[in-house]
Amino acid sequence: MQHIFNIDESRHAIERMAPVDYLGSSYYERWLDRNIRLLVEKGVITREELERRMAQLAGGTDPATPHSDPKLTARMLRVTKDRTPYRQPGPPPCFALGDRVLTRHDAPVGHTRLPRYARGKPGVIVRVHGTFIFPDTNAHGQGEQPHALYSVRFDAALLWGDSAEPRAPVHIDLWERYLLPDAPARSTS
Amino acid sequence: MSGGHDEHGHHHREPESVLSLRVRALESLLVEKKLVSSEAVDRIVSAYEQDIGPHNGAKVVARAWVDPAYRARLLADGTAAIEELGFGGVDLQVVENTPGVHNMVVCTLCSCYPHALIGLPPVWYKSFEYRSRAVREPRVVLREFGVDLPESTEIRIWDSSAELRYLVLPERPAGTERLNEADLAKLVTRDAMIGVAVVKPPAGASH
């Protein structure tokens, strides 16, 4: 809201929790950890300040003076109504409906939205969504770099092997940079 | 921000948990720094408690059931189609159930969910169990939800991994030909729009 951190930094902050803490926390406890982590990293608050404020509140006093900010309230409420800001102009898509693709088999250190279960897997483009901000760069201060997003369909057997259920394909929204062309090429007739 | 806020002044009996104290301390600091106002937090909480919920998505579904042209627009461009009904805040992809196809939505990476249309996600939607099993054994998961589909039905799983949200357009149940749009909307459940339920006909409807 105040543009202190973006949604991808926010997801990556949760991914950076210690695994044991992550597994032991509820959904909103993870949000709280994320908010504190990022506000500390961005220099908005310090952990010491937070500890002191907790002690003050436990003692029954809240030193903060309430204020009114109608513009902020209006802006926050608009987020529940307005179009989202993630669709941004970018280069035209390289793939088209029906194209066969292969997902990259990377193990990136940072944030990514290519799930591990779908890396190095063949799939088919079933929808071209347009161009969207790229989480892998946006999470790391490397810019929005919007480019093509697709819905890619994967056969269950190619993801799960012999234990796959019949007729249960999985569709994942994937950015072009996660994808490589896969033979055989789509017929151009 | 979301937890604990409404609990101001209600801590007179049980000692306050560290977690609740931490939430209040964070809000207090952000208020002090003028980055949030308690009023803004209260308004957002009340929006999610009162205005934003499955009744919104149900209106979209009912409109699509009674108006084939709207249904076509909804499937082609969900974001624009829900704006016609005054909804927004989400880039939407609608997937349609048909006699041979059932759709089911999950977010394996976090818990992406079309809040603007169906409110806050249920706890099970955010659980590791649903997130990992929905892609891997959807038929078993659906049976646990009481949905037993024939082997011939294709189950399409949508793992919402990007800033697009998925809403299932369920099949209109038989025996509802005489219901108007508002009454149809009452039949549509949150779970049906996630794809872990089917919409049941009203009691007494003939099949």
Helix and strand topology:
The complex is a heterodimer of chains A (189) and B (207).
Chain A: H1 7-15, H2 19-24, H3 27-41, H4 47-58, H5 70-78, E1 100-103, E2 122-132, H6 135-138, E3 147-154, H7 156-160, E4 170-175, E5 179-181
Antiparallel strand pairs in A: 1-2, 1-5, 2-3, 3-4
Chain B: H1 18-32, H2 38-51, H3 54-66, H4 68-76, H5 78-84, E1 92-96, E2 101-106, H6 115-118, H7 123-126, H8 128-136, H9 138-144, E3 154-159, E4 165-169, H10 181-187, H11 190-194
Helix pairs in contact in B: 3-4, 3-10, 4-5, 8-9
Provide a descriptive summary of the structure in words.
The complex is a heterodimer of chains A (189) and B (207). Chain A is α+β, with helices and mostly antiparallel strands and 189 residues long. Helix content of chain A is 32%, strand content 17%. Chain A contains 7 helices and 5 strands, in the order αααααββαβαββ. Chain A has helices at residues 7-15, 19-24, 27-41, 47-58, 70-78, 135-138, 156-160, and strands spanning 100-103, 122-132, 147-154, 170-175, 179-181. In chain A, strands 4-3-2-1-5 form a 5-stranded antiparallel β-sheet. In chain A, helix 1 (7-15) packs across helix 3. The N and C termini of chain A lie far apart (48 Å). A two-stranded parallel ribbon of chain B has the order 1-4. A two-stranded parallel ribbon of chain B has the order 2-3. The model of chain B is unreliable at 1-7 (pLDDT under 50). The interface between A and B is large, with 68 and 66 residues. Strand 4 of chain A pairs parallel with strand 3 (154-159) of chain B, so a sheet runs across the interface.
